[in-house]
Amino acid sequence: MRYRVKHITEYLYSGRVSHCYNLAHMIPRTTLRQTRLNNSMKISPVAAHSTTREDYFGNIAHHFEIQRPHNKLVITATSEVETGPQHTAINLDFGTTCEQARDLLNNATQPDSLLAREFLIDSSMIKPSDELRDFAAPSFEKDRPLLSAVMDLTSRIFREFTYSPQSTTIATPLEEVLKTRKGVCQDFAHLQIACLRALGFPAKYVSGYLETLPPPGKEKLVGADASHAWISVYSPSEGWFEFDPTNDCLVSEQHIITAWGRDFYDVTPLKGVIFGGGKSPALNVSVDVARL
Amino acid sequence: MIQSSSQVSTLQPEELVYRPSGSLRDEVFDAEGKTKAHWEQLLNSFHAIGRTTFEDRINKARRILRDDGATYNIYSDPSAPSNTWELDLVPSLISSSEWATIESGLQERAELFNLLLKDIYGPRNLIRHGVIPPEALFSHKGFLRACHGIQLPGEHQLILHAVDLIRGADGNMCVLTDRTQSPSGAGYALENRTVMSRVLPSLFRNSQVHRLASFFQQMRAKLVSLSPNQEQPRVVILTPGAHNETYFEHAYFANYMGLHLVQSGDLIVRNGYVWMKTLDGLSRVDVILRRVDDLFCDPVELRSDSQLGVPNLLDVARSGRVAIANPLGSGILENPVLLKFLPGISKALLGRELRLQTVDNYWCGDPQDLDYVLNHLDTLVIKPTFRGADMGSVSGRHLTRQQQQDLRDQIQQQPMQFVAQPLLEAGQLPTYNKGQLLPRPALLRSFAVAHSGSYSIMPGGLTRVGVKETSVEISNQSGAQSKDTWIISSEPHDTGAMPADEAPVSLVREADLISFPSRVVENLFWMGRYAERAEASLRLLRTVFMMLNGEEPVSDNCRRLLLQSVTSVTATQPGFTSGNDALIQEPEKELLRVVADSNSSGSVRSNLNAMLYCADESKELLSSDTLRVINDIRDGLTELDTDLLSGVGMASAPEEALDPLVTALMALSGLAHESMTRDFGWRFMDIGRRLERALQTTTIIRCLVVPETPETDQNVLLQTLLLSLEGLISYRRRYRARMGVQSTLDLVMMDTSNPRSLLHQLEQLSHHIRELPRAPDNRHELPPEERATLQAETLVKLSLLTELSAREDGERTQLKQMLITLKKSLNTISDLISDKYFDHRETSQQLVSSIWENN
User: Fold this and answer.
1) Is A117 on the interface with B (CB under 8 A)?
2) Is-contact B333 B117, C-beta < 8 A?
3) CA atoms within 13 A on the CB side of B798
């Protein structure tokens, strides 16, 4: 599938910003199932200097510095990508079992499995706990294929948790999400990653976009899309597989990947340091995913 | 020969002999218990020197260290005496034949660590091939993913490498830890050497000690070679600031190697390069020798709450437009878990195991090691894997049962974050202690710098010895003394063709060094202002004490005016201006507050504290004589309490307690005049002084001359004015005994031959301001600060003495008006200068909250 994604981020500051330094993760990366065809980053006011590079995780990181005073910062990232489905034949009922997966990881000698173990370790936003492990454990009987167990956990999160944009912020800890059973895609992804890591399975955070289809017979509204997040889990000798707990599904062609990392913090769309700017800037984000 | 206890008792008190413990392994003796030849010679020399002379040398060494400002730790309260660096005059000796082995072992180790660093931030083959378990690297906070792929030019990524070594049980050197972040200590080693060569010159000369200077030359050359820009590369040292524990060394390096000393606020990233903010604008920085931990160097990509970093620095380093040594991310090599896997790492990267031994390391992230550690706490030292952690090293043996259990729980919660090393008994070295040479456990820090294809090792290093014979912890924080380390040549000619005296001669000082960071200039400006402010207050206080305690009684009104002038000049209102008569009658307590209360913002003490702070911040530009005077002022402040609070001072002659401070401050201004280069730094310091002196004089005149008083009172007030402005003698010479308002005003305001007159200050100010750098401009309009100075100068010049002295409604109205206008002008000048020349940093903030990263 071919898409054009337009992601507009606008900061309105209450005070003048004299200069700023920013780091954006807004350009979709190329992966096994996705090719970036082209992209452009438009920044207003114009950046005095910018660099684009691949970061540690292979994501596209865009640095820029603005040296002229401004009250408003607008970043328009436009990209065209070609996406495909995940590994051709995923059969959830066959493959490495949970127990085998753990053994293969612990005694790993293959580079892929050794490197995947990085995603077992606590990261800044994800600290597995006994509660999270206990919540996840029933899905992971030792003889069950790992991917089937992950799908089951994905469905349970979908069923037992309520999607509720007002209930959490970026700072809501996982324990609270688990307790209130409410959150947004980012919370569900973090929760599922924590569950998987607690049980000994490497998991990544994936940020991106999801194509939303208009109700039958209606025009699609521009800007109605949003950025999205899901997870990727590692099964030794099988590879990485993406699951979307917010939509109870295996990730498909409609999932467009921007970046991945240990958690949201590694792939924050825009961060940086500003000089001046006053208190609490207003942030407006609009995303439009158009099928080409 | 080991001295037996029976021999000891027969010794003369004057004799200086070594008394080894006999039971602990001692560096002085070989396997058969015989004194090694080079030690024999040294101990004989000390015996010949004798105790009294030795004590003299110790005192001399202390004086030099103090005068050089050699400190380890300046407390957050700038008036607190800083810890002078502790040097034991008995050097640690290593024969050159043994050193050759150690040196090649250290070179090999530095080369290995360089390869290890390249692999960690490059292909990570050691992980891929299973040499290092992934968790050992990926769970460590020092592994900075943002630094992946950054490369310095040349074959070395690790520029500086320091190693802590002790003598193991077999007598061979054994590595305890590596320092790869921003290793400290080399500067202290150089200072130790300098002092030793000065206090024990003949011993030093005769001992054929390998010299240190070439190591620093190589270090400088290496730093310069890293520059992406080969024309006049600018190398700076980035320090966290004057309150860092090793700030002395930062300033010392800056001076010795001719580099700029900068703090994060002095640097800025613009258009993809790093720049230093100077008076002349921005100048490009090519190489940064960092003394700030990597995690704190860039708030955009690393710790976002850091105030010690430069936003976007990492991205500039990534694009190769600035070189940072050691590179950001190099702190990962301090992860002790890597030491557990060192044999494998060495085989994989060098094809052989290291020659130099490393202490055993148990990593609690490994189930077997964890089990061993939990069951052998008594024989182990437990360390967190990340040095920045709240916990330091803990010796299991020194914990209570309960503490041991708590530690076990802590380890089990996060096993990957802990390592353990066996508790080693360090070899002993003779150390001077209260008239005796006693054995103390020793630790050697060695230093390596990348140099033409390999590493160059400092011949010697920094030796530290424990406080007690059985000390386990040997660190500066625990009060350890340091020693010079002498590599003794067997051949007389291989010490390197260096001058006999190793006093530091600054390596090349580049022409462009005249432009220093504007922060330093600002600090000099304020140093001038605070010094002058403190001096003016002290002079007035001293005079007021004398007047109040003089044999001639002063009237109540006069007393009030005198005390109120103290409040006004020190700006400690309300004080004596509160209208409280009891305070005027019993002024001692308030006067004491004005002198010594550090919480009162106008007090002499708080002004001097502020001045000392500014001096610390611009330390690298101050001469050693100036540093000595600064030390005197610090001491004077400490003694002030003893003198004033003992009651002796306050009751009898309080002015005497203030004398030493006045003298020291005068010495400071004298030095500024006589020994400071007339560069912009000096000019700004003098602008600060002139402005402050003019302001203070304006205030004193207003307090003492504006009110109309009976003649007897007026005489006292005018005398006070003249005394505090040091004008009484010239006045008397000119006008004999009679005190007149007009002639007094003439002397203190208009007379430009009087270096304390108002007009003299204003003329000097005008002169300085005309000399300051300014943007080229074709117009002839005067810049605002020059206009303001001209205005002030004209105001005084056009005044008429008869008008100024004219009385109206109980005061001299015209004088008062004129002084008010003048004061306003002076404040305007100060504001204009600071707006134009000093850096006004805006506060920065994070675009998104970052509460997560420190978890």
Assistant:
1) yes
2) yes
3) 8
User: CB count, 10 Å around CB of B673?
Assistant: 11
Its pTM surpasses 0.90: no
Structure-block tokens of residue B846: 């994070």
Distance from the Cα of B240 to chain A's closest Cα (Å) equals: 19
DSSP string, B459-509: SS-EEEE-SSTT-----GGGT-EEEEEEEE-SSTTTT-S--S--PPPPP--
Residues from chain B that touch A21, judged by Cβ atoms under 8 A, are: 269, 300, 311-312
CB B196 within 8 A of CB B475: no
Between 3.20.190.10, 3.40.630.30, 3.30.1490.270, 3.40.190.10, what CATH number should domain B360-423 receive? 3.30.1490.270
Parallel, antiparallel, or unpaired for β B462-465 and B436-451? antiparallel
Cβ-based contacts of B139 with chain A (< 8 Å): 121-122
Question: Where are the domains positioned within chain B?
Answer: 5-87, 88-359+424-512, 360-423, 516-675, 678-774+781-838
B3 against B578, higher pLDDT: B578
Say how many C-beta atoms besides its own lie within 10 A of residue B38's C-beta: 19
Cβ–Cβ of B847/A65 closer than 8 Å?
Answer: no
Is B12 a residue whose pLDDT tops 90? no
B239's tokens: 């320090």
Helices and strands counted in chain B (H then E): 31, 23
Q: Which of B127, B846, B851 sits opposite A115 (nearest CB)?
A: B127
> What average pLDDT does range B9-20 have in this prediction?
71
**Which residues of B are less than 8 Å from A114 in CB distance?**
127-128, 130, 134
The residue among A19, A73, A271 with the most chain B CBs within 10 A of its CB, best to mutate, is A271
* Of B300, B312, B853, Cβ closest to residue A124: B853
B-interface mutation test, from A110, A114, A280, most B Cβ less than 10 A away:
A114
Strands of B362-363's sheet in order across: B362-363, B418-422, B380-384, B394-395
- Whether residues A65 and B844 touch (CB distance < 8 A) is answered with no
ipTM attached to this prediction: 0.95
Q: What are all long-range contacts of B791-798, with beta carbons under 8 Å and residues at least 24 apart?
A: B791/B825, B792/B694, B792/B762, B792/B765, B792/B822, B792/B825, B792/B826, B792/B829, B793/B759, B793/B762, B793/B763, B793/B765, B793/B766, B795/B821, B795/B822, B795/B825, B796/B749, B796/B750, B796/B758, B796/B759, B796/B762, B796/B822, B797/B750, B797/B759
Find chain B residues with C-beta within 8 A of A56's C-beta: 145-146, 148-149
CA distance B222 to B216: 10
**Distance separating alpha carbons of residues A228 and A206, to the nearest angstrom:** 9
Beta partners for residue A78, in sequence order: A6, A40
Q: Give yes or no for B797 touching A (CB within 8 A).
A: no
Model confidence over B498-519: pLDDT tens digits?
444 444 444 444 444 456 788 8
B662: exposed, middle or buried (Cβ count in 10 Å: 0-12, 13-18, 19+): middle
User: How many contacts does A have with B, using Cβ atoms within 8 A?
Assistant: 108
Q: Residue B643: is its pLDDT beyond 60?
A: yes
Give B843 to chain A, closest Cα distance, Å: 6
Task: Supply the DSSP string of B759-827, one letter for each residue.
Answer: HHHHHHHHHHHHHS-----S--PPPHHHHHHHHHHHHHHT--HHHHH--BTTB-HHHHHHHHHHHHHHH
**A232 touching chain B per CB within 8 A:** no
Which domains can be identified in chain A, with CATH numbers? 2-83+268-291 (2.60.40.2250), 98-252 (3.10.620.30)
Q: What is the mean pLDDT of residues A49-78?
A: 96
Amino acid letter at B25?
Answer: R
Chain A contact for B802 (CB, 8 A cutoff): no
For B533, the 3-state DSSP assignment is helix
